[in-house]
Structure to design on (339 residues):
């Protein structure tokens, strides 16, 4: 039987999607401060149609990361995003847990 | 990230090797380093620290910021003894994200009907370990109560540096077990690593509650240990 621990694995998914011809971006948590459910090294992978697998927060900033991922795929240029409670934009996407996170988004080429 | 780099990373992870990826956050340049391989000497210190701690993060070196993303093998639980506690433990451990393997040479116990969707072996543990060895990211849970089945995997788990080694049994059978292992040359410090009576003391009654106590103790060992100590 296959190793079930890779069943919902974002990096495995990213490879499968890319091999299948889909355009893929990978978001990685670089740093966290305070309350943050996803440790540095957590991944969210996103395709051009906004399908995604994995997580970079408890669901607070995923929608923003997914929409930024489309830009990264189109431009081919990586981005670093930072979210925190003091940030109006982040507040609007709901990072209300009191934490701060920095996320790197790049395209898979 | 290049697809070839991602392939190399995923292959190493599937082979249960610790692997990391170094990304220059300004230039986007990537490299993949499997534990034991040489890396850029400039990055040797943070790279070896990341391998030791198993923690990802960013690092400032010579005015540049690097993301060091470490991927340690997914933790797995090897259950010796396809008994009732093992049935519940196997299901719960999969939900909690562990890869699970159940081994029992007694054909009557190790049946797919009793362990649906679980990686199951009706072989002796040494036969299974020959192709699926124990490692530092493995928890070994001995539940068979039978020294002929349990003793070898417990000894092997101590040798392999498994992050958790637990054995079911009352105080008397546990002290006899420790005596047998001491005769095989294990030190008192080695033997102290075996959790017995098994499981956190939550007053568990019955197979399901015992399985919860064992799983909680495994998670405690995994999250509170320092990988450097292995």
């Amino acid at each position: 039987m296959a190793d079930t621990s890779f069943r919902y694995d974002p990096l495995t998914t990213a490879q499968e999607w890319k091999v299948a011809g889909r355009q893929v971006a990978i978001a990685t948590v670089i740093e966290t401060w305070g309350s943050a459910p996803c440790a540095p090294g957590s991944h969210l992978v996103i395709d051009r149609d906004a399908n995604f697998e994995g997580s970079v927060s408890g669901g607070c900033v995923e929608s923003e990361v997914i929409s930024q991922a489309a830009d990264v795929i189109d431009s081919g240029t990586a981005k670093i995003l930072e979210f925190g409670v003091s940030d109006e934009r982040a507040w609007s996407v709901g990072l209300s847990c009191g934490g701060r996170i920095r996320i790197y988004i790049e395209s898979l080429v | 990230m290049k697809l070839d780099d991602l392939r190399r990373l995923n292959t190493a992870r599937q082979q249960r090797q610790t692997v990391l990826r170094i990304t220059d956050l300004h230039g986007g340049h990537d490299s993949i380093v499997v534990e034991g391989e040489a890396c850029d000497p400039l990055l040797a210190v943070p790279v070896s620290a990341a391998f030791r701690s198993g923690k990802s993060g960013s690092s400032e070196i010579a005015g540049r910021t690097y993301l060091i993303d470490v991927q340690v093998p997914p933790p797995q639980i090897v259950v010796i003894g396809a008994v009732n506690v093992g049935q519940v433990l196997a299901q719960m451990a999969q939900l909690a994200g562990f890869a699970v393997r159940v081994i029992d040479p007694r054909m009557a116990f190790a049946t797919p009907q009793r362990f649906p969707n679980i990686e199951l072996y009706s072989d002796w543990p040494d036969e299974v370990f020959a192709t699926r060895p124990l490692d530092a990211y493995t928890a070994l849970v001995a539940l068979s109560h039978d020294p002929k089945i349990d003793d070898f995997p417990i000894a092997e788990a101590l040798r392999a540096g498994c992050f958790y080694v637990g054995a079911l049994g009352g105080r008397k059978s546990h002290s006899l077990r420790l005596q047998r292992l001491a005769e095989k040359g294990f030190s008192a410090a080695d033997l102290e690593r075996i959790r017995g009576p098994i499981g956190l003391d939550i007053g568990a009654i019955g197979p399901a509650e015992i399985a919860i106590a064992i799983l909680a103790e495994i998670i405690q060992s995994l999250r509170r240990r320092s990988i450097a100590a292995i």
User: Anything to note?
Assistant: Chain B has a mean pLDDT of 92. The CA atoms of residues 62 and 204 of chain B lie 55 Å apart.
